[in-house]
Specification:
This is Centromere protein O. The protein is of the alpha+beta class. Helix content is about 50%, strand content about 20%.
C-alpha cells in the first residue's frame, strides 16, 4: 500500500528576501567598520607612543644642551672648567655625566676654534700692542713637510699697514699689497702672499733634495729666489759627456719650471726622442723626482 506524505511549502515573498540581504550586508559593513576602527586605534596609539618617546628624547637633549652651554660658557670665561658649579644642573663632582659634559664642551670649543681658523684662511693671528695690531703667521710646507714660517705685523689703524715683517726681500711684497688691495680684501692678499712663499719654499726644498739625493748632479748656478737653476750631469755615451740643464721658473707662484733647456756637446741630444720626454718630465714633475726617473731610464749617470 503506497502512502504519500505531503509537506507544506512556504513561499518567501521578494520583500522578505531583500530585507534579509540588507540585514546581512549591514552586519558585514558593521564588522568591517569595527575592524577598521580597531586598526585605526592601534595606529593612533602607536603614533602617540612614538611622539611621547620623541618628546622625552627632546627633553633629555634640551637638558643636556643647556648643561653643555653652561659648561662651555665657563670654559670660555675662565679657560678652566668648574668641577662643582650650581649653575650646571645635575652635575656631580667627578661623576660620569660631569666628565662627559666637560669632554663635549672642550670638543665644541675646539671645533669653533678650527672653524675660525678656517675662516681666516688657516693663518695664525695674534693680537699685538694691546689690540692696536695683529701678527699673522704664514707657514710654508712642501710634500707634507713644514718648512719656514714668515710673519707680518699689521697696524689696525684707519688704513691697514704692514709695520714689520720677515718676508724675503725678493718677494714683491709692496706690489702684492697694491694688487691684492689689502684694505678691502686682506684674505686675498694673504692667500696670494702665501702662494709666493710656498712656491719659493717648494723650489728651495726641491733644490735641497736634489743635492741630498743625487750626488752625481752638480748645481752649477742658482739665484736666491730659486727661479733659475743650472744643473750639470753626465749623460752616458761617447759623444754626450757633460750636459747642462737650465730650468727657468717664470711663474713665481708655482714649484714647477716653465722652461727647460738642454745644452750638450752632442748637438743632436736635445732633439732626440728620449730627451724630449725628459724635458716634458722636468716640466711636469718635481726636480728631484724627475732626476730619479731619468737615472732609472739611463738618461743620466
Amino acid at each position: 500500500m503506497l502512502v504519500l506524505i505531503y509537506y507544506p511549502t512556504f513561499v518567501l515573498s521578494p520583500g522578505v528576501l531583500g530585507h534579509l540581504n540588507m540585514l546581512e550586508m549591514e552586519a558585514s559593513n558593521l564588522k568591517q567598520q569595527d575592524l577598521r576602527q580597531s586598526s585605526c586605534e592601534e595606529e593612533l596609539n602607536a603614533t602617540l607612543q612614538a611622539l611621547l618617546r620623541k618628546r622625552d628624547q627632546l627633553q633629555v637633549e634640551i637638558k643636556a644642551n643647556t648643561s653643555l652651554q653652561k659648561m662651555r660658557s665657563l670654559l670660555d670665561r675662565t679657560g678652566v672648567p668648574c668641577e662643582r658649579n650650581e649653575d650646571v644642573d645635575d652635575q656631580e663632582d667627578g661623576s660620569d655625566n660631569s666628565q662627559l659634559l666637560l669632554m663635549m664642551a672642550k670638543h665644541t670649543q675646539l671645533k669653533d676654534l678650527l672653524h675660525a681658523h678656517h675662516l681666516i684662511g688657516g693663518y695664525d693671528v695674534l693680537q699685538t700692542r694691546k689690540g692696536k695690531g695683529v701678527c699673522v703667521s704664514l707657514a710654508t710646507a712642501y710634500e707634507g713637510v713644514y718648512l719656514e714660517t714668515y710673519n707680518l705685523e699689521i697696524d689696525l689703524g684707519s688704513n691697514l699697514r704692514i709695520c714689520r715683517h720677515n718676508i724675503p726681500p725678493f718677494i714683491p711684497l709692496e706690489r702684492l699689497v697694491t694688487q691684492g688691495n689689502m684694505q678691502t680684501d686682506i684674505r686675498d692678499f694673504l692667500d696670494t702672499l702665501s702662494q709666493y712663499l710656498n712656491a719659493y719654499a717648494g723650489r728651495k726644498q726641491q733644490l735641497h733634495l736634489t743635492k741630498e739625493i743625487h750626488s752625481s748632479v752638480q748645481v752649477a748656478e742658482s739665484n736666491a729666489l730659486c727661479t733659475i737653476l743650472v744643473l750639470m750631469f753626465t749623460v752616458p755615451g761617447e759623444k754626450a759627456g757633460a750636459t747642462l740643464c737650465t730650468l727657468q721658473y717664470a711663474d713665481h707662484t708655482q714649484c714647477l719650471p716653465t722652461r727647460v733647456n738642454i745644452q750638450s756637446e752632442d748637438t743632436a741630444l736635445a732633439s732626440s726622442p728620449q730627451w724630449k720626454k725628459n724635458q716634458a718630465l722636468l716640466l711636469e714633475t718635481p726636480l728631484h723626482t724627475a732626476l730619479v726617473t731619468m737615472k732609472k731610464t739611463g738618461s743620466i749617470a
